[in-house]
Amino acid sequence: QVLSLPIVVIVHGNQDNNAKATILWDNAFSEIDRVPFVVAERVPWEKMCDTLNMKFMAEVQTTKGLLKEHYFFLAQKIFNDHNASPEDFQSRSVSWAQFNKEILPGRGFTFWQWFDGVLDLTKRCLKSYWSDRLIIGFISKQYVCKLLSVEPDGTFLLRFSDSEIGGVTIAHVIRGKDGSSQVENIQPFSSKDLSIRSLGDRIRDLGQLRNLYPNTPKDQAFGSHYNSE
Predict the structure, then answer these.
(1) Whole-prediction pTM
(2) What is the CA angle 211-119-40, rounded to 5?
(3) Exposed e or buried b for every residue in 49-67, given b needs 16+ CB within 10 A?
(4) What whole-number distance in Å separates Cα of residue 157 and Cα of residue 141?
(5) Locate the SH2 domain: which residues (predicted)?
(6) Which domains occur in the chain, in start order?
(7) Chain segment 96-135, per-residue pLDDT in tens
């Protein structure tokens, strides 16, 4: 006899997401010489970061992994804590319930469902943009406002939507004649939207977008991703 890799049996496609979560957790955090089916209920956050990074790079097929600031945003999201410092999160542990049972505050989905949606979108439509580091992605709306509010008119960046599963949105700053600034978030694009017209071409279409944060002209940043009309 030999122990197999973990297997989950499902009866409907809508269980696929939970099955993937179960297998990811089991593969990443079970002990080699464990009693069958026994797996840790809580794991160190640092271990979870390594697992999410490995999963992201393998799924998207990219050499560009997650950065420290991405982990900080993900920690704020999974622990629902916006006051802790990055160092505070290093000593914490995350539970299976926080990973894929508890619904995120004000949302209709779990942390894993949201993260898996990001994986799917990036794999299908955003691989080259992510690999060129054109997408910040994992960043909060509040922090985006802080970054962009002091930038020149038309400065923009790309972040994964908080409110929708598998969406990417463009945040940009509009500066009034009196010097006041307003940060707008364009409605998120799904993989369906981006299969109709690519992200690069959508960015070219939007005249109000000028420079990719911090200060790269958009044609210089995204020119290689434009399709010839």
Answers:
(1) 0.89
(2) 130
(3) bebbeebbeeebebeeebe
(4) 11
(5) 114-213
(6) 13-225 (1.10.238.10)
(7) 999 998 898 888 899 999 999 999 999 999 999 999 999 9
